[in-house]
Design a protein that fits this description.
Elements (H helix, E strand, L loop, with lengths): L2 H18 L19 H12 L10 H16 L5 E10 L5 E14 L6 E7 L13 H14 L8 E6 L7 H7 L7 E9 L7 E5 L4 H10 L7 H9 L5 H5 L5 E7 L18 H19 L9 E5 L5 E5 H21 L5 H27 L9 H22 L6 H22 L9 H12 L6 H27 L8 H15 L1 H6 L2 H21 L9 E11 L3 E8 L15 E3 L8 E5 L10 E10 L2 E9 L5 E6 L5 E6 L2 E4 L10 E6 L7 E7 L5 E9 L6 H6 L4 E2 L6 E9 L1
Parallel strand pairs: 2-19, 3-4, 3-5, 5-7, 10-22, 10-23
Antiparallel strand pairs: 1-2, 2-4, 6-7, 8-9, 10-11, 11-13, 12-13, 14-15, 15-20, 16-19, 16-21, 17-18, 17-20, 21-23
Helix pairs in contact: 1-12, 1-18, 2-3, 2-4, 2-9, 4-9, 6-9, 10-13, 11-12, 11-13, 11-16, 12-16, 12-18, 13-16, 14-15, 15-16
Bound molecules: zinc ion.
The site of zinc ion has 5 residues, from loops.
Length: 738
Amino acid sequence: MRRSSLLALGVLLLILAALGAKSLLISLPPVESSPGGFDASRAKARLAFILGDQRPHPADSPADDAVRARLIATLQQMGLQPIVRDQFACNDFQKARYVSCARVRNVIAILGPHKGKALLLSAHYDSVPVGPGASDDGIGVATLLEVGSILKDRPLKRPVIVLFNEGEELGLIGARAFLTDPLSRSVDSVLNFEARGVTGPVTMFETSRPNAAAIDAFARAVKRPFASSLSTDVYHLLPNDTDVTTYNERGWLALNFAMAGNETRYHSPGDDLAGLDRRSLQHMGNQALAVSTELSSGMPQVRGQRVFMDVLGRGLVQMPLAAGLVIFVLLLLSFAMIVWRRRAYGRALAAPIGAIVLGSVAGWLASLIMGAVRAGTYWRAHPEPSFVAIYATVLLGALVVLRTLGAGASREQLRAGTWLIFLLLGALLGSVASGAIIYFLAPPLVVLIGMAASKWWRGAETVGGLVAILILYLTWGEMLALLEVLFSPGPLWIAAPVAAIMMVPALAETHGLFGDAHRPALLAGSGAIALLSWTVVGLTPAYSQDHEQRFTIEHLTEFPSGKTYWSVLNDGAALPTSYSGLGKWTYGKLPSSDRERWFTSAPAAAGIQAPSVQLLEILQSGDERRIRLRLRANGAERILITVPATAHLRTAGIAGVVRPIAGDAASSGKFSIACTGRSCDGAELIIDAETSKPIPIIITGSSNGLPASAAPLLEGRPPNARPQYVPDQSVAAAHVNL
Ligand SMILES: [Zn+2]
């Protein structure tokens, strides 16, 4: 093989190694406590006391009563006088036809003066029914307690309200309840602390809009920021919710923080104290203390919208959106002119765009093929090799295009074409999420400076190109690392286009080197690297002790038929061989649920009843009908009522807290009404429907735990598997006409 071919292959390996190593860009320092600072060890010890025996503690359960009692005791020990607000509340997930109700008890402590505009610190102390919630949201509880213990001894200029709310997991119910609290009227700013994982950097992923005041406070206070206007703008477009979604209707200054590393423990029994990373707690705590200190002294007096991004978690670059747009447009015009002058409009433009498209498609296809070969979430235990394999495939796809379509272009033409395409992609993304443009400014600016300086020194343009690639790697590499964390549950191919955009400038800059190389050897070498990477993925275990398989066992009873089933909710992988002795398993849907699952018939369990409704009153006026019902839980911890779309629900809820449903006329599909916790038994449910016909509803009750006959299923569950999102539970569903 020629020397240039070896060199070119070396460049490919270097690109892959850099992409493989980018997680270093988001690593956190070890825990160190400074005097007067946030002490993660003390915070975690307090959390351990509050969580007790670490059992799941959903809202309005005896386990949550115990957690709340220990939380209150801790606050009192700190010398604070916590108050408890006890009320039924219902919230709707704003973007779905869903009303969720529960009796919640918010725990509130007030620091500093009791008069004036207040800063709210918010976290939730309830967990999901499937896990102990040491991170979600134990990290928020631990953070608030430690920050509270530090702030209470400081002379505060204005009140700081510390809110431990209950019911976030059921649909932001605690936050909704707080908005009915007179205390909420004094609030002008909120910091919220959440988790969608158990490790990794704590990113600031949501702000109030416009964001200048929030960003001003954040940038001033936080020493190790991980945040960008790209992620806050994209988050805003997604249908995700935290308590801040509910708070936002008040127009408070808001900053929302969370970590997302190792999603396999999130909403599972693995979300325990052992899983909670103390470095993440320290990172969250440092930010919480710093921003609270900043905001408790007064509100920032700036306005408008900013674009911003952190640089390696060491500082925040920010500018007004308008300034960012001006620079962006000037860059776009400059590169359009350069492309024109260099006659780089043919292949030199088609090649980079083709490389990005074909590279991304290749990465997507390869992940599909691997998904067909290995069922289930094969990357779950070790996502890194799978992402590297995708990047190796992207690289192959990009190289094929650049060595064919782009081969005729000179390096200078290709450089100009590549950065114009880069800017055009920025314009495309920026038109959806304007905050994205911050990622498209520095690299082309450096290239442009290099081009201008080449009048005096010929090498300047190459130096500019290389520095741009370095900046691209440091900024986009961090973004890609966070994207991998966020998309570790899948789909993996999301990372492919981002990696492709990062690679093409590097390939364009080394265009000459690739031109000298022997093309068949180069492509064969690149193909071999991709194939080898996927072989490693194929041989890597899918699950580990730290990253277990999702595997929920349910016992289901359907009334009136009385049919009973075993059900397994997993990632679609085949069931353990021992399960075949229990019956013939089918993968599909059951009549009472839309979820795909494994199921087989099961022996009936004694004493299982579905929840029921007792009709109290029907008020009919024209086509409108108000139905009042009394809920009977019949032992269920959670009740879900499913109503068909044809019933045209207008409102639903518990008496006193009835809420509008389906405000969005464009949405369609069935309605759901949930009531969770002990207090649902005997509660009065009110539904307003726009129909005169009988309404066929499905009422489902579920409770943690399985009948004794489930022993062989529990014993046969694979060693590295645990329930996630849904607990092992007994479910009974009944069909009723209203
Ligand atoms: Zn949460």
